[in-house]
Structure formats: C-alpha cells, structure tokens
C-alpha cells in the first residue's frame, strides 16, 4: 500500500483550525459534558463487524450510565479522516476514535509489534487478548500513547489472513515468481522469502490489479475479501496461516478519560474489556457467512502446507524486520523474549 506507514499529514495548524471551528459548534471537550464524540472513518450503516461493534459500544455506554452520558458518532470521516484521527483526539477535538495503528508506526512502534511478526500463530481474539495483557503488564505500551494524549480503551485486530489468488497455489513451489501485494514491514520480506515478488498497491486499487493480472495474489481474510469484492475477480483462497494482524485501537483523548468521574471511567474500562469479544463474535459471523457463500461464487478454498511456510521464517530478511522491532522494544526497556515468544510458531 503506497505510503502505508507515512506519518499523518494532519499538521498542528490544521488541528488548531479544526478545533476552533468545532468549538463554535459545541464540540469543545468538557469534563461535565453529557455527550462525548466518537470520530471514525467508517461509514454509518456499513454493516460490518467494525461498524456494528462501534454501535454496540455506544449503545451500551448510554445504557450502563443510565442515560446520564452518551456518545455521538461522527461517521465517515465527517470530522477527521483516517490519518487525522490521532491528532484530532490529541487536540481534544474528539473524545473517542478509531486509530489504524499501522498507519502510524513511527508514532506507535511498540503498539505495532504484531506488524513486525507476520506470519505469527495467533487468531483475532488471541491478538486482542495479547494486546490487553501487554498494556496491563508493561507500562511502556500505554506511555507511548500517552505521549500523544491518547489512551487505548479497546482493541480491534484484523481477521486471520490467507492469500486470495487468481490461480491455484498448493505449495511453496507454486508461489515462485508470483506477484503478491505487500505493505508495511513484514509482508515484503515474507513475500521475497517465499520466492515471490512484492508489489505495493493501495487497497482500493487491488481489485483492478487482480482483474488485469497485475497482481496474482493479495494477503487478506474472507470478510475483507468480500467487503472489497476481491473475490469477484480472484477465485482461489489459499489457507496459508499468516495469522491475524493488529489493526485498530479504540482510543480516547487521555484528557477526556482522566476528566471522567470514577463511575463513568469504570463503565468505559468494562466496555473496553468486553469490546474484543463482541467485535470478534460479529467478525466470525461474517467470515462464516462469506465462506458459506463462496461455493456459489466459484471460490475454491485450498489448504497450504504449514510446515512450508514455517520453513522460511528463519530467512534473514524476515529476521531483520523482527530485529527492528526487538531493538526498539529493548530500548524502551521491555522484556523482549517474553513478548516475542508469544508471536512465534
């Protein structure tokens, strides 16, 4: 994905201008406010697990505070677009928001740990629980966010990925020379280690690239393959166990969180702890529905030998990417061996 990890272009001037304009519309953060603001790039009524679980959080917050407090969701980037949300929360333009963590690896390297360790053996809910554990056990994860006036209150990993391809892939030999979409840190190194060619193409452009044979494969999960309609033009889903990627933080302005009364803050903490389970349940439901419909769409699901994938993990290119995160984590004083052991096959 072109520019996938670039720093947000939402500069301080833009934040200040937006904050001033929003203040005139009663968007100013107020510790006594009855209504909090949730900033998201998701369109209202998207109907996917992300949007559904967001609405669940909002509805439960109002119910559990007895209607004393509520959250208004500003859907579809109407207040801050995807790459603007962290700075908007930092500036108290919003109170809650969705942060696609890998877009900001320069700001949040520790919280992007999973992105350096693809492939890894954990599922969506397992990654969510690992993130919860790391935040509870190691203060460095929360401190990294606090540097930007942010606090994580929930975790939304992406689904476990395989490869969606335009031709059958049944072994490592079949991947040789294939053009595979890559982004971030780990995927380019992994694709090269598999003997394929990494191609950087934006998410929105991948459909056409698969359709016109610019790409042979893209790493993706069933729900996203269906959501982006890639399964209309690529009819082979390869069950290569890449694992789940860490995707989104459900974040708050730290100022807002600290200004809440103890009772309201306890509601937020409880909802955050429950969020991953609700999100994962919705995601698994979607995945099951997509898989059930693939036969009628002509999509073939093909197993891939797990041992052949594991055999390339010691490749120096993959290990160099992992070492990059390890070096950063060691500099932050984290017990690296303990964390890394949970991301290894």
UniProtKB/TrEMBL annotation:
Cleaved signal peptide residues: 1-28
InterPro entries per the UniProt record, alphabetical: DctP_fam (IPR018389), TRAP_DctP_sf (IPR038404)
GO terms for biological process, alphabetical: transmembrane transport
Pfam families hit by this protein: DctP (PF03480)
Keyword Cell inner membrane: no
Key words, A-Z: Signal, Transport
Family membership: Belongs to the bacterial solute-binding protein 7 family.
Protein name: C4-dicarboxylate ABC transporter substrate-binding protein
Organism: Thalassospira alkalitolerans
Phylogenetic classification of the source organism: Bacteria, Pseudomonadati, Pseudomonadota, Alphaproteobacteria, Rhodospirillales
């Amino acid at each position: 994905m072109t520019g996938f990890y670039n720093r947000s272009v939402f500069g301080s001037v833009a934040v200040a201008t937006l904050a001033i304009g929003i203040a005139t519309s009663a968007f100013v953060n107020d510790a006594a406010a009855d209504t909090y603001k949730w900033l998201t790039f998701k369109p209202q009524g998207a109907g996917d697990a992300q949007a559904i679980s967001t609405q669940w959080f909002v509805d439960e917050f109002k119910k559990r505070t007895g209607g004393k407090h509520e959250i208004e969701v500003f859907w579809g980037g109407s207040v801050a677009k995807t790459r603007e949300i962290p700075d908007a929360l930092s500036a108290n333009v919003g109170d809650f928001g969705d942060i696609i963590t890998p877009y900001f690896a320069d700001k949040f390297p520790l919280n992007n740990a999973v992105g350096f360790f693809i492939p890894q053996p954990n599922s969506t809910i397992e990654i969510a629980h690992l993130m919860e554990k790391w935040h509870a056990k190691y203060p460095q994860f929360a401190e990294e966010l606090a540097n930007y006036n942010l606090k994580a209150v929930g975790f939304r990993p992406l689904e476990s990925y395989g490869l969606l391809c335009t031709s059958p892939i049944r072994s490592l030999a079949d991947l040789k020379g294939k053009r595979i979409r890559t982004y971030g840190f780990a995927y380019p190194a992994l694709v090269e280690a598999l003997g394929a060619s990494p191609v950087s193409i934006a998410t929105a452009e991948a459909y056409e690239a698969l359709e016109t044979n610019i790409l042979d494969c893209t790493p993706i999960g069933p729900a996203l393959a269906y959501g982006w309609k890639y399964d209309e033009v690529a009819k082979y889903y390869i069950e290569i166990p890449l694992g789940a990627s860490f995707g989104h933080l459900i974040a708050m302005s730290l100022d807002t969180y600290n200004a809440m009364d103890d009772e309201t803050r306890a509601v937020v903490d409880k909802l955050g702890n429950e969020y991953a389970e609700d999100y994962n349940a919705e995601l698994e439901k979607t995945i099951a529905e997509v898989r059930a419909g693939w036969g009628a769409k002509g999509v073939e699901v093909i197993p891939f030998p797990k041992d052949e994938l594991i055999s390339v993990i010691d490749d120096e290119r993959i290990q160099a990417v992992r070492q990059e995160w390890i070096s950063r984590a060691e500099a932050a004083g984290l017990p690296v061996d303990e964390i890394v052991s949970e991301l290894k096959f």
